């Protein structure tokens, strides 16, 4: 049962071959038995899930079901859930139970989906390995002692291990696509503004975007159907019609113009990774796509610009965690300054503190122009690169991550090495365009992701291209042992 | 040495919107602590701001009223600092691109001299909550009801040269924002708060001296006293050969003392940057036109109309027009009373004195405008003498609910204006005053004659039991004496 996709489970529920309560119980049992190995969940909400499953079955009986009614799934622990602890992977929020739902949470609730729990993540989504979580690292189901990528590593591992058929994620610099690649699942970061950020705990407001993680492109389309759309509570959310993303999945790809950025296929790209990606692109040519080389000339500036802008925004976004109103507070503060400094010193982990320091520095008087303002200018150049490229191609393709899954602890002592994990994903967030990672090969038995990058609001075309690839290949159907 | 005082003001004006600037929470004053603080106001994780359109309308209205440029694109920035009553750890405010650009406010000083004060800009921002340091046994209470209340911060050029000018400007501004209806003007509740930047320089020089900023003055009286205090402090330092330190100071109005809060070196680095949760706000001509279409009459226009339509003096028209509530009260009184000048005299005289003494605003007046109007009407038509009018006013003030005419009837305050009756009265009184009549007629100095005339009026009023119309009695008396 747990090998089925969301689309298949929805059909089973519709045909009455299984109830939501049975499905939910099955996945809860799997989490209980299997997740001791992966640590992909921070919180499992068994009681709430069974209650919601029962309600979903009743709703279906009344003839009011949506495609999601009764489907089990999980939320990355960055989405606020009314009455359910929401930690963002941090000691700072270990005791935080929000009295409200994120808009994404509300939409899944309204659709009747059954949330089984909250998945592990890098603290405040800062990381590419899910090792910076206060709740311990998540392990990649594909190997021994390997990271699942991050920051949405809990969601990626849970889907890969078939503990849930789908999970939400967020992507600020690659946090959906890189773990999707490393765990061999399909993930989509939508256009900035496509999915509401309300109730999604902010890391870097101008880059954060909620998205979808599941095994197939079709399931990603089903998820995006629920998540996308205008929200008056988020001023950066765009009021634009939402298509049915499943409606165009089966369009043929004949004539699809694919661009390969020279900068993504330089000498720096690992030879075996290049081989896997090129083989996947050859598959697209078989499907009727035409391929051309393009240039995204400012790609080399992306990481530098990102590591100014994201920490700068984070330094302000995380100021609210001060021990005054909610969350962690240090014991017996002797005065206000002591309350602030010890609460934040004890409540935040190393990587979060590092980024707050970097961001604070970048915004400081005398440095603002040289760092923050300059980075914003670079960001516009990078946006311009994509706008230019999409004048001549429909989709840009390249690797999603520089390597397959790496060993736990192998990059934690060198932050810059860790930052380079996102070398192929970060520019996409700076530009705000949508992108996916699709399983497209293996190296030494570990999954490799192909990245598909689309024009603004062109998620339907990305999902169509990914689905057609998945009709022709079976990389997405491979599952880790166990 | 002669010193010249240079003053610039920064004024925080709370906008009278129903809800907060970035959330739908009520802004009503006086609720139990933290009952008007939503998840957004508390800066709960993941919550986001959404700008309040009405705040933009009010800021635009202010801009139009001071003849300023309205910036079509304005940008909110984050001003970062930690304080327990600042929930997000930053204040959302405007810096480089405020909504209101340069404008001006014209003021008139008590000596009648007019002066223009330039406005540098005015920007929208959110208010912080309140930290309550009393009653918590060494701890601090936080009330976030005020957090997120919309403000415009108005920044003047350093155009004022005395405390008097600064206060005249502040009063004018108060009149302006209350007349526009964009602020309730209640300074005791912090609806308008003044920061004063003061420096002094040798008279005749152009270069500005080092300034200090005294923050959060919430009455005109304290503001005036704080400026006097600061000017004296600076002159004392300079005359003793010292130097002024650029700093922020706090003034204690009850003790007339001030102390340094922080020096320039201790100032925060606020690390401003554009708020990524709020896109730049673009407004168009249609928006500005829609605001212009609902602009109430401005105090200056009102003043001109009061002079033209009611024949009021500059001074009276200025006082009555600067406060929307006073102007409204005046017009209602004048309408009922029929005599606008008399209405103005009563409002600016007796009524103002009583309201001030009782610490009431004109909206809280126990005497409604229509009732004062009825009184004015009876003064104007000679039914009431001035002493009778005062008696009636006293009864009205104390809540007598009988109609004015009923009170006059009941209290027997109606003036006797029947000439025949009054002539008889004068004759009977004069019959016993032959000696004084002779003395009057013998006097040649007109001033002394006038004084002697007064000696007859007392007995006359007494004989009429205070009800004789003094003007008529005077006329009759004069006629008889001149014989």
From TrEMBL, chain A:
EC number: 6.3.5.7
Positions annotated as active site in the UniProt record: 76, 151, 175
Stored Pfam families: Amidase
GO terms for MF: glutaminyl-tRNA synthase (glutamine-hydrolyzing) activity
InterPro entries the record matches: Amidase, Amidase_CS, Amidase_dom, AS_sf, GatA
Record-linked Gene3D superfamilies: Amidase signature (AS) domain (3.90.1300.10)
Catalytic activity: L-glutamyl-tRNA(Gln) + L-glutamine + ATP + H2O = L-glutaminyl-tRNA(Gln) + L-glutamate + ADP + phosphate + H(+)
Role description: Allows the formation of correctly charged Gln-tRNA(Gln) through the transamidation of misacylated Glu-tRNA(Gln) in organisms which lack glutaminyl-tRNA synthetase. The reaction takes place in the presence of glutamine and ATP through an activated gamma-phospho-Glu-tRNA(Gln).
Protein known as: Glutamyl-tRNA(Gln) amidotransferase subunit A
TrEMBL record, chain B:
Keywords of this entry: ATP-binding, Ligase, Nucleotide-binding, Protein biosynthesis
EC category name: ligase
Catalysed transformations (reactions): L-glutamyl-tRNA(Gln) + L-glutamine + ATP + H2O = L-glutaminyl-tRNA(Gln) + L-glutamate + ADP + phosphate + H(+); L-aspartyl-tRNA(Asn) + L-glutamine + ATP + H2O = L-asparaginyl-tRNA(Asn) + L-glutamate + ADP + phosphate + 2 H(+)
Top-rank lineage group of the source organism: Bacteria
One Pfam family matching this protein: GatB_Yqey
Coiled coil: none
EC number of the protein: 6.3.5.-
Function: Allows the formation of correctly charged Asn-tRNA(Asn) or Gln-tRNA(Gln) through the transamidation of misacylated Asp-tRNA(Asn) or Glu-tRNA(Gln) in organisms which lack either or both of asparaginyl-tRNA or glutaminyl-tRNA synthetases. The reaction takes place in the presence of glutamine and ATP through an activated phospho-Asp-tRNA(Asn) or phospho-Glu-tRNA(Gln).
HAMAP family attached to this UniProt entry: GatB (MF_00121)
Family designation: Belongs to the GatB/GatE family. GatB subfamily.
Quaternary context: Heterotrimer of A, B and C subunits.
Stated name of the protein: Aspartyl/glutamyl-tRNA(Asn/Gln) amidotransferase subunit B
Annotated organism of origin: Marinobacter halodurans
Gene: gatB
């Amino acid at each position: 049962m747990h090998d089925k996709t969301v689309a298949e489970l929805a059909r089973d529920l519709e045909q009455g071959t299984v109830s939501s309560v049975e499905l939910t119980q099955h996945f809860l049992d799997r989490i209980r038995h299997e997740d001791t190995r992966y640590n992909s969940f921070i919180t499992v909400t068994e009681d709430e899930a069974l209650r919601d499953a029962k309600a979903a079955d009743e709703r279906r009986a009344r003839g009011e079901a949506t495609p999601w009614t009764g489907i089990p799934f999980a939320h990355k622990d960055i989405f606020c859930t009314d009455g359910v602890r929401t930690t963002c992977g941090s000691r700072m929020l270990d005791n935080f139970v929000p009295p409200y739902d994120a808009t994404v949470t509300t939409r899944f609730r309204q659709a009747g989906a059954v949330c089984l729990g909250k998945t592990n993540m890098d603290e405040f989504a800062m990381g590419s390995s899910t090792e910076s979580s206060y709740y311990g690292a998540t392990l990649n189901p594909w190997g021994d002692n390997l990271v699942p990528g991050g920051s949405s590593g809990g969601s990626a591992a849970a889907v890969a291990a078939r503990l849930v058929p789908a999970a939400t994620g967020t992507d600020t610099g690659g946090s959906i696509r890189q773990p999707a690649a490393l765990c061999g699942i399909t993930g989509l970061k939508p256009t900035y503004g496509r999915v509401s950020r309300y109730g999604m705990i902010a890391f870097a407001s101008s880059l954060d975007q909620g998205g979808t993680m599941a095994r197939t492109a079709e399931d990603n389309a089903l998820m995006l159907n629920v998540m996308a759309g205008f929200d008056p509570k988020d001023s950066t959310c765009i009021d634009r019609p939402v298509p049915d993303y499943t409606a165009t999945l089966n369009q043929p790809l004949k004539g699809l113009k694919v661009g390969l950025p020279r900068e993504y296929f330089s000498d720096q790209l690992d030879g075996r990774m290049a081989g896997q990606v090129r083989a996947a692109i050859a598959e697209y040519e078989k499907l009727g796509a035409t391929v051309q080389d393009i240039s995204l000339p400012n790609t080399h500036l992306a990481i530098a610009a990102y590591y100014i802008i994201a920490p700068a925004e984070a330094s302000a976004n995380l100021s609210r965690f001060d021990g005054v109103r909610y969350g962690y507070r240090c014991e017996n503060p002797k005065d206000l300054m002591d309350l602030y400094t010890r609460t934040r010193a004890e409540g935040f982990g190393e990587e979060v503190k590092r980024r707050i320091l970097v961001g604070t520095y970048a915004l400081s008087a005398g440095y603002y122009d040289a760092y923050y303002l300059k980075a914003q200018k670079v960001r516009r150049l990078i946006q311009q690169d994509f706008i230019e490229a999409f004048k001549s191609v429909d989709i840009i393709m390249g690797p999603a991550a520089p390597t397959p899954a790496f060993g736990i602890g192998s990059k934690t002592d060198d932050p810059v090495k860790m930052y380079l994990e996102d070398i192929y994903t970060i520019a996409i967030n700076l530009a705000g365009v949508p992108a996916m990672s699709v399983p497209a090969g293996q190296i030494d038995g570990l999954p490799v992701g192909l990245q598909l990058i689309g024009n603004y609001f062109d998620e339907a075309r990305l999902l169509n291209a990914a689905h057609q690839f998945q009709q022709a290949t079976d990389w997405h159907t491979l599952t880790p042992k166990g | 040495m002669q010193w010249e005082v240079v003053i610039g003001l920064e004024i925080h004006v709370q906008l009278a919107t129903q809800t907060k600037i970035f959330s739908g929470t009520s802004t009503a004053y006086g609720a139990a602590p933290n009952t008007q603080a939503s998840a957004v106001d508390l800066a709960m994780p993941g919550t986001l701001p959404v700008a309040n359109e009405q705040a933009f309308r009010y800021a635009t209205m202010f801009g139009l009223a001071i003849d300023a440029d309205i910036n079509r694109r304005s940008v909110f920035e984050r001003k970062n600092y930690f304080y327990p009553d600042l929930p997000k750890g930053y204040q959302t405010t405007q810096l480089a691109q405020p909504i209101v650009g340069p404008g001006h406010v014209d003021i008139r000083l008590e000596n009648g001299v007019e002066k223009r004060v330039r406005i540098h800009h005015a920007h929208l921002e959110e208010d912080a909550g309140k930290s309550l340091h009393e009653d918590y046994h060494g701890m601090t209470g936080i009330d976030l009801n005020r957090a997120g209340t919309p403000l415009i911060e108005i920044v003047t050029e350093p155009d004022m040269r005395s405390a008097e000018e600064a206060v005249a400007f502040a009063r004018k501004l108060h009149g302006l924002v209350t007349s526009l209806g964009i602020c309730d003007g209640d300074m005791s509740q912090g609806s308008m708060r003044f920061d004063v930047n003061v420096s002094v320089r040798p008279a005749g020089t152009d270069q500005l001296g080092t300034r200090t900023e005294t923050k959060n003055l919430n009455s005109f009286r304290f503001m005036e006293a704080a400026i006097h205090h600061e000017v004296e402090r600076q002159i004392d330092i300079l005359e003793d050969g010292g130097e002024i330190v650029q700093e922020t100071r706090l003034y204690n109005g009850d003790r007339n003392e001030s102390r340094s809060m922080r020096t320039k070196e201790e100032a925060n680095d606020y690390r401003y940057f554009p708020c990524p949760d709020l896109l730049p706000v673009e407004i168009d001509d249609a928006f500005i036109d829609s605001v212009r279409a609902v602009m109430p009459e401005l105090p200056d226009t009102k003043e001109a109309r009061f002079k033209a339509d009611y024949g009021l003096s500059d001074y009276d028209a200025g006082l009555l027009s600067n406060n929307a509530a006073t102007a409204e009260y005046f017009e209602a009184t004048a309408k009922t009373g029929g005599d606008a000048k008399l209405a103005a005299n009563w409002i600016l005289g007796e009524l103002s004195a009583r309201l001030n003494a009782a610490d009431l605003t004109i909206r809280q007046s126990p005497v409604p405008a229509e009732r004062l109007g009825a009184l004015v009407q009876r003064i104007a038509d000679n039914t009431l003498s001035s002493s009778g009018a005062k008696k009636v006013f006293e009864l009205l003030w104390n809540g007598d609910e009988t109609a004015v005419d009923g009170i006059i009837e009941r209290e027997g305050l109606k003036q006797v204006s029947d000439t025949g009756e009054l002539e008889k009265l004068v004759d009977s009184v004069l019959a016993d005053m032959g000696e004084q009549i002779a003395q009057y007629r013998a006097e040649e100095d007109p001033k002394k004659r006038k004084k002697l005339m007064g000696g007859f009026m007392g007995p006359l009023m007494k004989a009429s039991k205070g009800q004789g119309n003094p003007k008529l009695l005077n006329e009759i008396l004069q006629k008889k004496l001149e014989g």
